[in-house]
From TrEMBL:
<dbReference type="GO" id="GO:0006281">
    <property type="term" value="P:DNA repair"/>
</dbReference>
<dbReference type="Pfam" id="PF13419">
    <property type="entry name" value="HAD_2"/>
</dbReference>
<dbReference type="InterPro" id="IPR050155">
    <property type="entry name" value="HAD-like_hydrolase_sf"/>
</dbReference>
<protein>
    <recommendedName>
        <fullName>phosphoglycolate phosphatase</fullName>
        <ecNumber>3.1.3.18</ecNumber>
    </recommendedName>
</protein>
<keyword id="KW-0378">Hydrolase</keyword>
<dbReference type="InterPro" id="IPR041492">
    <property type="entry name" value="HAD_2"/>
</dbReference>
<comment type="pathway">
    <text>Organic acid metabolism; glycolate biosynthesis; glycolate from 2-phosphoglycolate: step 1/1.</text>
</comment>
<dbReference type="GO" id="GO:0005829">
    <property type="term" value="C:cytosol"/>
</dbReference>
<dbReference type="InterPro" id="IPR023198">
    <property type="entry name" value="PGP-like_dom2"/>
</dbReference>
<dbReference type="GO" id="GO:0008967">
    <property type="term" value="F:phosphoglycolate phosphatase activity"/>
</dbReference>
<dbReference type="InterPro" id="IPR023214">
    <property type="entry name" value="HAD_sf"/>
</dbReference>
<dbReference type="InterPro" id="IPR036412">
    <property type="entry name" value="HAD-like_sf"/>
</dbReference>
<dbReference type="InterPro" id="IPR006439">
    <property type="entry name" value="HAD-SF_hydro_IA"/>
</dbReference>
<comment type="similarity">
    <text>Belongs to the HAD-like hydrolase superfamily. CbbY/CbbZ/Gph/YieH family.</text>
</comment>
Amino acid sequence: MKKNIVFDLDGTLLDTLEDIAISANFALVSLGFQPQESAKYRYFVGEGVFKLFENIFASNVQTPELIQQAVTLFETHYTKQFNQNTKLYEGVSKMLSFLQKRNFKMAILSNKPDSFTKMCAMKYLRQWKFDVVYGVREGVPRKPHPRGALEISELLHVKPNDCYYLGDTMIDMQTANSAGMIAIGALWGFREENELKEHGAKYLAKTPSEVIKLLAEV
Ligand SMILES: O=C(O)COP(=O)(O)O
C-alpha cells in the first residue's frame, strides 16, 4: 500500500510568498538595495534562504558576506512577521483531513530553515498529524538532494517508492525522482506546468481536490 505522502511547504501547503517577499525586501532596503516585486519571489524562492539572496543580487555585487548579512536581516524580520499574510491554499485543509482519515502517513520536507519550517507547521498545520517535519538542517544537503526524503521514508518505515511527494517546483520534482518517490506536481503553487512536467512530475494536480481524487483509490 502506498499510503504515505511527503509535502513541500512553501507554495504547496502554505502560500507564504507575501511574507517572504516583505522580509526579503526589508533586508534588501536595509542594505541599500532596491526592493523586488512580490511576484518575482515565485522564482527566487525554492532553494533555501541563502540561494534566495544569491538569486536576487546581481553577480557583480554579491559576496558571501553580503549574502550572509541579508540572510541574518531576513531571518530576524521573518521570525516576527511570518504569519501576517501567510495562509493555507484553498482546499489544502480538506485534502489533509481526507488523507489523515484514510490513514496516510504524512510528512513535510522544506528548503526553509528547519526552525521556520517547524514554526509554520505549528502555526498553520497543527490540527493534522505529521510524522516528520523537516526543513534545512545543519549537515544535511538541501533538496533536490534526496537525503532528507530518504530519511523521512526510513523514519516512516516505508520504501521510498511507496511514497508520494507533492510539491510545486522543479526542485521538488527532482527531489522526488532522485529519492525514488512518486512525484505529484501542485499547479496552484509558485511555478508553471511546463517546469513540473519537464522535471519529472508523474502526475499533475490543478487543485488539492484533484490530489484527493488521485489518491482516493490508493
Ligand atoms: O524556502 C524555500 O526556499 C523553499 O521552501 P519549500 O522547500 O518549502 O518550497
